[in-house]
Design goal:
Largest sheet: none
Number of helices: 1
Transmembrane segments: 30-51
Strand content: under 5%
Radius of gyration: 26 Å
Helix content: over 70%
Order of helices and strands: H
Keywords: Membrane, Transmembrane, Transmembrane helix
Structural class: mainly alpha
């Protein structure tokens, strides 16, 4: 929850408060973006690793892809 805007009518005080809130929001947004990029990268890496393992096992067992 965001803190309540200060009751001080000084425009500089209100502007400083707004700037601080904006910086906090940017930090949260960047954190979310970083988390999404990390999750996608890990998913791609995991999928590639599993596919490589399955292909290696199929090659060792003499199974080949159908239709090629």
């Amino acid at each position: 929850m965001h803190p309540i805007i200060p009751h001080n009518p000084n425009p500089m005080h209100v502007a400083t408060h707004a700037e601080r809130l904006a910086k906090e929001q940017v930090g949260k947004t960047l954190g979310i973006v970083f988390s999404v990029i990390t999750a996608v990268s890990l998913g791609v890496l995991t999928t590639k690793t599993v596919l490589d393992m399955v292909r290696g096992r199929n090659d060792r067992d003499g199974h080949h892809e159908r239709g090629r």
